[in-house]
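User: Fold this, then the next.

Assistant: Folding the first:
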Amino acid sequence: MRLIENWFSERYSDNLQLSFRVKDQLLSIKTDYQRIDLFDTYDFGKLLSIDGTVQLTERDEYIYHEMITMLPYYFNTKPETALIIGGGDGGAAKRLLKLNFKNIVNAEIDRNVVEVSRKYFPEIASSFDDKRVKLIIGDGIKYIKNSNEKFDRIIIDSTDPVGPAEGLFSKEFYNDIKNHLTDGGIAVTQSGSPYYQEKALSLAYKGLSGVFSNVKTYLAFIPTYPSGLWSFTMASERAFKIRDENVINGTYFNKDILAGSFYLPEFVKKIII
């Protein structure tokens, strides 16, 4: 991350970065786990950065949160319960509430992410005030090891596979996830930019494939993430089948996206071979 002359820049490589013109820096703190920065930008509103990488902006957060929740919702059995690992901004929980989930557990390791989100993104983090959401401040890896609960959907809403999120891309963790899914349940994780983060996608896909019988990667366009092309990978013991019911449109998500997101460019297919 660099802030020069009122520009925040996320560096993708030694030779490329994406910059946002900034009105003001609203917050900068170092927690026990990571660095959190918050900016007020001209084009994307408030922008939350963790360890120098964009996590969400007011303008386009809906794309990520719809795609990690709404797309897997329509496969296999109709879900009612979910576990979110990460997701301290409340965006994933908000979308699940709109899908009428009855019970949501959200395990976030860094209390500061929740507090910052409550203050600066109240329209998103207000999901934590809903009685259907149980917020746990703690390590999601430890939670899943010590819990006996089973869930219809497990959503791994993590940062990149470094630091506190590194263990969320391991085969051991995916085994634990599998053991906490109901019959026909689905796990889904963000798996990075296929263009700039091949390792993240490869780790997620191959790790899940070593544990689950059925694994699929799908894509979305997210303007403020590296290259704009972002991947998600979902896994289940049951073959994936779209349920026969009306698809509710989001702001990004619709019936065409539900089907078309699985059509992958050739270079992405080669990453997950």
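Now the next one, as you asked:
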Amino acid sequence: MLFGVVVIKMKEVEKMASKKKFKLMSAILTVICVVLVAEAAAPVASIGNSQYFWWIFMIIAFLLPYGLISSELGTTYNGDGGMYDWIRAAYPKGKTAGRAAWYYWINFPLWMASLAVLFPSLITIVTGVEFGTIPSLIIELVFIWLIVLISFFPAGDSTWILNGGAIIKVLLALIMGGLGIYGAVTHGVANPYTFKSLLPSFDINSLSFISVIIFNCLGFEVICTLTDSMDNPKRDIPRSIITGGLVIAAIYLFCAFGIGAAIPSDQISSDTGLLDAMMLLTGQTGGVFISIMAVLFMLTLFGNMISWSFGVNSVARYAAENHDLPQIFAKHSQKNNMPTGAAIMNGIVASVVVLIGAFLPDSNLFWSFFALNLVLFLISYLPVFPAFLKLRKLDPDRERPFKVPGSSGFQKVLAILPMILIIVSVFFTAVPLAFDSETLSATLPITIGSVLFIIIGEFIIAYCRKKSAE
């Protein structure tokens, strides 16, 4: 009898040990895989040399305080609910946490749909085969549901995907930056550096890219939802965030400098992506090099979506278990405890979006879907910063393995400044600032879509609260 109990206990220990595959290096690479978006460095370069000011300013004013605050909250309130846990701990009675969870979740299938519509054109670059509407839809749906399928399994089982995605992202960013610097050295600087050109520009075009830069800095909280897969989350979370943040900041600046030095800003637009920038840098529209870059870029898209799915699905599940989202999101695998309900809902919503998009007249579906997801995504972060300040007051004696340094006044600045930047970026992304047909056609769908999803979220949260009270 005693022997049998010992064997059972040993098996339980072995099972627990097998789950903890997420080492510190994997955590750092996951942060890079989640946060680093090499694709977005090119369109920001369209604002000219003032991009360097905005990159440096946003790294100091947003990335740094957001990383510090995420490190403290993630190690103090460590659990798989991530930012939802933090907000709910600060505001337990209201709907604030539920709203944040809704915006945080709904952005993901919209983002997945925006990347899915890129895949047929990427495959065309590699194979030379043009796809019609139906084949393109099939490719997009395969992309979506493959991500859903992989997200059924724990992060520890997908470590190789997350690590590989991070390494490829860094490689692509370094190649793009290196090509730019080589082009500038051999052919001269495309955008002459003058004192005036380096000053920040406050025109509508430049300010609209604040949201893109902030988007490029978000995602630190995702690593905080993977505590079950980590050996020592209280140690590894701040180390991975700080190390990953420094690497990401350096790569963004290097990549931005390479593109800005070699490509005239008037040749870059908001639609210009990583591959477009490489084509401009090399003067090639095809060939072996561009095909290899396209394949690597496709792999990074998979890595990005898979890494984000773990955080988004965990937040949605915890919100459902606390009756802030429908119970379908609370469904999970009995075998590995993964939130399968949220994953399936991701696939359903993203599939509906790409099916509708196939019949829309607007050819730039990527930006339309991406901008909508961007607005909702940024809004979800607004409560995180006041929650940090409130939890310091509500729970001053709680052990904080990592603590944001400085006085209370300094901490208020760290929390308020990112909030202001988010509000400004949402305003310039979602609100039409002119009434000409071109501006309205580009911005009005984003405005209407954002308002619509906000209203839908209010109805869903109210219904779930009412249902739980019955």
